[in-house]
Design goal:
It is built from 13 helices and no strands. The chain is mainly α and 319 residues long. This is Flippase-like domain-containing protein.
């Protein structure tokens, strides 16, 4: 049987790229069309009685989204630097292209493979590990602030949690992790050992920079959520509402979901958490919908261009 020609492979790859972009755009359209607070006429009816058109506020919110993704782009550029030096535009291409490709995958797992495609075969395993580090740094910030926020929130609103069970679960998790690492060290799991050695040997200044970028991103998008809420007639300051926002992001991070349904998870959690602050559900759902549009839908449209213009090296296509 004759192998497909290089030109046939190229055509097939172009069709795959177009299919991925169309699927991503279709899913975004479904979310914008089927979710009531996101439908244009309903959304305008919700906003019109409360919000005069304020172009400065619109520009400010867009600027926050740009800053959010700009710091993520800088973070990827910084973390990947020991493997390959890339510019801001190339980092933007990889970051937003990977976002588009990962929208339809659980917990954006597709981002790992998507970013690896931008690099030669011999470095792809390292790229996947670095992307794991990239996401772990963001998760660590979410856990740090979310844990503090959840403790303050439960104390403020007298929500009774079973701290004994929580401590037992945490202790068991730490013990199991420690036991696993000990087994890895004592046995011949060379692949895992090499993985841990690679992470341990990674420049600490690079990791510290990635941590700072993660912190800046968290501050920006959590404040953006608060700022969008303030366009509605609510009387609450940032310090009062911050624990609920931090708790929402923490709880949403541990719920398995497809990225494109992320706003549904945050919306349902937000409705519950912000009910303690007497904020109407429609304001919360509208805010989570706007956050989805600003931080997922719009960047993924830009990423669609990078997906369509992406080219795999001939050696990869011909194998």
């Amino acid at each position: 049987m004759n192998k497909p020609s290089h030109k046939t492979n190229q055509i097939f790859f172009v069709l795959i790229k177009i299919g991925i972009v169309l699927a991503s755009l279709f899913y975004i359209y479904l979310q914008l069309n089927e979710n009531e607070p996101m439908q244009a006429h309903i959304f305008s009816n919700i906003l019109r009685p409360h919000i005069p058109i304020n172009y400065k506020a619109i520009l400010f919110v867009l600027a926050l989204s740009l800053l959010n993704w700009f710091f993520d782009i800088l973070k990827w550029k910084t973390l990947i630097n020991p493997i390959k030096k890339i510019g801001v535009f190339e980092s933007c291409r990889q970051t937003l292209g990977a976002l588009t490709l990962s929208l339809l995958t659980p917990n954006r797992i597709g981002e790992y493979a998507a970013k690896a495609l931008f690099y030669p075969n011999q470095t792809r395993k390292k790229i996947i590990i670095i992307n794991g580090l990239h996401n772990f740094l963001q998760l660590s910030i979410t856990i740090l602030f979310g844990s503090i926020g959840l403790i303050i929130f439960t104390k403020t609103y007298h929500i009774h949690l079973n701290y004994t069970k929580a401590l037992i679960i945490t202790g068991c998790t730490i013990t199991a992790t420690g036991f696993f690492l000990w087994i890895v060290k004592k046995t011949k799991f060379r692949g895992v050992t090499k993985l841990l050695a690679f992470i341990h040997s990674y420049p600490k200044t690079i990791i510290a920079s990635g941590f700072v970028y993660s912190l800046l991103r968290y501050i920006i998008f959590s404040f953006q959520f608060y700022y969008l809420l303030t366009v509605f007639p609510i009387d609450v300051n940032y310090l009062d509402i911050a624990p609920a926002i931090f708790s929402m992001y923490l709880l949403a991070s541990v719920v398995p979901s497809i990225a494109i349904f992320d706003f549904v998870i945050k919306g349902s959690l937000g409705v519950f958490l912000f009910s303690f602050l007497k904020i109407p559900p429609v304001f919360i759902l509208s805010t989570t919908s706007l956050m989805f549009i600003l931080n997922f839908a719009l960047p993924s449209l830009v990423g669609s261009f990078f997906v369509l213009t992406f080219k795999v090296p001939k050696k990869v296509l011909s194998t």
